[in-house]
Amino acid sequence: MVVTATRTPRTMGNLAIPVLLINSKTLYQSGSLRLNDILSEQTALMITDNFGKGIQMQGLSSEYTLVLLDGEPLIGRTGGVLDLSRITIRNIRKVEIIKGPSSSLYGSEAMGGVINIITDGAGQHKTDASIRYGRFGSIDGAINYARKYKKTDIQLASNYNRSEGYSLKPFAVQKTVEPFWKAAHQLNINHLISERWKAGAGLRFNNTHIDNSISVQNLGSTITSKGFEKNQEYNITPFIQYQVDKKIKSVLRGYITGFHASQQLDVKDAYGSYNDKFSQLFARVEQQTDIHPTEQSTLTLGAGLIKEQVSSNRYDSLSTLRNNQIAYLFAQHEYAVNEQLTIIGGVRFDANKAYASVLSPKFSFQYKLNRCLNFNASYGRGFKAPDFRQLYLNFTNLAAGAYSVFGTEVATAEINRMSAAMMLEQTTDMFSKLSVLKPETSGGLNLGVQYLHPQKLQFNLNLFRNDLSNMIVTDVIAFKKNGGQIYSYFNLKRALTQGAEINLSKQFINALNIQAGYQYLYTADKDVVDAIKDGKVFQRNQSNNLVSRMGLNEYGGLPYRSRHSGNIKFYYQHVKGFFATSRLMYRGRWGTMDLDGNGLINRADEFAKGHLQLNCSAGIQIKQQIKLMAGVDNVLNYKDLINLPGNPGRVGYIDLQFNF
Amino acid sequence: MNRSIIFAFALLSSLFFIACEKEENASGPNSSLTSNLVKDLVADTIVGLANGQPVGVGKYTFYSLENNAIVPSSDSNSTKWDIAFRGTSILTNAGTSGPGAGGAFVYTGTYDELKTVSPDSVFRKDSAPSSFAIPSGSNKGWYVYDPVNNLITPIPGRVLVIKTAKGNYAKIEIINYYKGGTTPAPSVSDDIKLKTQRFYTFRFAHQANGTASFQ
Predict the structure, then answer these.
(1) Residue B157 at interface with chain A, using a CB cutoff of 8 Å
(2) CB contacts, 8 Å: A545 with chain B
(3) Which of A337, A365, A387, A418 has a CA 20 to 30 Å removed from the CA of A402?
(4) Which residue of A has its CA nearest to B194?
(5) Are the Cβ atoms of B53 and A482 closer than 8 angstroms?
(6) Which residues of chain A neighbour B131 with C-beta distances below 8 Å?
């Protein structure tokens, strides 16, 4: 069953939009520890390694993907990236991934898709503990405890993860990944008050601590600094549910989450110590009512209020709180016209205090030709709210060219202040174009065919296209007297991502399952495409420095996107509890940075090399209580210091699990 | 100004001037007018840090396109020079920069394609401190600055069309901003990036007969 797609439980064969479901068996047998581990093995999902482990879906980067934990959004992004390695999957029952825009149900950030991590559900009775040891002094320990009483059930999960880190460069002062520890604790309680009333609450704490030792060479002098970086996150999720009758169910959910990040460095030079703090609070109350007026239709109605608060010395001072309030309404109607055809229509309206309001509709259709074959089509609008950085950032970099970046809400005041202080050389045309930021928006079309047959080859194909507009980019609004540039944010860029995703799966003699997947992805900045067509874009040859006009076929699209990617995976399961897996993933070359000055990915040296990653694991059940597993990730020992700093090479591990 | 910095600059600049190579023929196949390649022209190289920012001594390097030679800065207030370089800033000999009949604009296209200066071209004159014939700033004139990798790269397809101090036409393509004509790899330390920048490699063609043709 999948809940994320429509906010009500549906079976996989009854979904009108592309969905990927990863179950607990796959999570365990793949030897995954953190969310990024398992997602990196899925077709059409790319893990990016910039400000932590981000996800790229349908060619949209991490900031356009909403990550939910048991249906509630996780916060605490850096540079738009929600670091997936923050999330342990030791107490995860399944991961649901919805592709394409779903802002009609979830609001901001649900543009490329939604990832919903669903923890161990209510109603279980178990105690298990696991311990893992791997290369680089990596230890992971977890305890899960669940009890079911007459009317109450309780789940408790604890996870601790540490590593000594590693260096891809030998003898470097600064490790590629510094020693860290992460700890997560979660408690959930559900109580059946009466036949109709149910209430519960969840509490989660998640902490990360990373050692820092940074060494910077600056004009002959080496500046070394030691310190640490830490993140603290908490989530509180109370709810109360009322079953009016067989046809109507209503849930009131509260949600409070906080994220505090700090970095402290003792810099050994005249600048003194460096202290960076960021604090975010997200509080929400939401009411959702599901109504089944007839057998054939489901009506979902919801409304909510959100309060967001951020303070950071990256913006101005820690004591200045920046706020936003959102009020929203959503409605969705699912209607089965007949046995074959189902139509779903939905819409959501978000009224925002700090930026422009937005309306997000979505329509989807499913047509079942027979029991195995079905077609689906959907079109939805997605949006991403401007983040606090884009609204309130007040940053000056002294080291690199003394440039400054001001958020749109503070830019005019800062420019006026600097102008009065005679610090400005001139303002640019863009300064007069500064305005209230609008959310970034997208329209996403998905067309799919699915063939599901338990004994035969299973197959699905999905074609997608996302048109993004109002994308927020920086531009120069003024020059300082000392030559430094001042940037602010504008809704200027338009982009498109389109492609095809194919998945095949076949079960052989109940023991062997083979899966294969491939994604073709084309991405482009629309204004760049227009400029190339107009013959206004040039490139410089790497060997002879000669300049030539660039053709459309030489344009490598948006950075960090692989045109080709795929995988082939083998899962062998013996009746006596023995299993073995082998998963081979391919990621084709992807653009990393411009080197010839045209701001685009075009030259061969502007791409990171494509590579293969092979992960293997095997395990056995010893008696009823003990499971033993061993595995090797990155068997081929592929490394790329510059483009894949998060990949340490071959890593072996052993893992022991007790079920009490 | 600190005396030792001036001394260091004098020492460095004398070394660089000796090292500066020039007068190589680099004419393309399509142009009959001779193109000249100038390598490693020093443009106020960085001598230290001030308030955390890298600085040179603030002096322009003056260049005569007519003679294909560096002009001593003592002649800055004359018509002996046509173009001057300081960091990423480029001056032409007119307006607030000098007494010449110069000017410039930035042409979008390839160097070889630019065969004549179109009669409707508007040559801008320097008007310090706010406006220059060749605009300064990333992506505004001839270069782009990458703040992530801290590198400056000439934009391909930008040709500086220059009126010399005497009023003749010239075209310039800036090829590289780093010593030896090679941009350091992005992974190289900032230290090396700062020490090797402000060395211009460019090619130019100059029409001495006063016509607008580069053929």
Answers:
(1) yes
(2) 175-176, 181
(3) A387
(4) A219
(5) yes
(6) 426
Residue A150 CB neighbour total at 10 angstroms: 6
Residue B212 belongs to some domain of the structure = no
How many residue pairs bridge chain A and chain B with CB atoms within 8 Å of each other?
93
Does residue A99 fall inside a structural domain?
no
**Residue A646 located in a structural domain:** yes
CA dist B181 and A520 (Å) reads 38
Residue B6 has what pLDDT? 46
B51 touches A at CB < 8 Å: yes
Asked if A101 and A443 touch (Cβ cutoff 8 Å), the reply is yes
Residues paired with residue A237 on neighbouring β-strands, in sequence order: A202
- Give, as one character, the DSSP assignment of residue A81: B
The reply to whether B126 falls in a domain is yes
Which residues of chain B does A537 touch, with a Cβ-Cβ cutoff of 8 Å? 157
Beta bridge partners of A157: A144, A186
Nearest to B137 among A398, A476, A482 (CB): A476
| Angstroms from B149 CA to nearest CA on chain A | 9
Test A538 with B145 for CB contact under 8 angstroms. Answer: no
A491-550: pLDDT as tens digits: 989 999 999 999 999 988 889 999 999 999 999 999 999 999 999 999 999 989 999 999
- Which residue range is the domain that position A613 belongs to? 509-660
d(CA A145, CA A158): 9
ipTM value of the model?
Answer: 0.82
State the Cα–Cα distance between residues A90 and A131, nearest whole angstrom.
Answer: 11
For B82, the domain range is 3-207
* Tally of domains in chain A: 1
Asked whether residue B63 is assigned to any structural domain, the reply reads yes
Residue A133 covered by a domain = no
Contacts of A217 in chain B (CB under 8 A): 189-191
Rounded distance between C-alpha atoms, residue A75 and residue A107, angstroms:
14
Tens of pLDDT, residue by residue over A221-236, are: 667 778 899 999 999 9
Identify the residue among B138, B171, B197, B201 best suited for mutation to test binding to A, counting A beta carbons within 10 A and taking the highest.
Answer: B138
If one counts the domains in chain B, the total is 1
Question: Which residues of B fall within a CB distance of 8 Å from A399?
Answer: 52, 190
Using a CB–CB cutoff of 8 Å, tell me whether B147 touches chain A: yes
Tell the residue number behind the tokens 């030679």, with chain if given: B69
* C-alpha torsion A470→A472→A473→A478, nearest 10: 100
B214 part of a folded domain: no
- DSSP letter string over A244-283? -SSSEEEEEEEEEEEEEEEEEEEESSTT--EEEEEEEEEE
pLDDT of residue B22: 45
> Are B156 and A547 a contacting pair at CB < 8 A?
yes
| Residue A210 within any structural domain of the chain | no
Best mutation target among B90, B107, B191 (most A Cβ atoms within 10 Å) is B191
From first CA to last CA, the distance across chain B in angstroms is 47
Instruction: Give the residue among A345, A558, A376, A526 at the shortest CA–CA distance from A449.
Output: A376
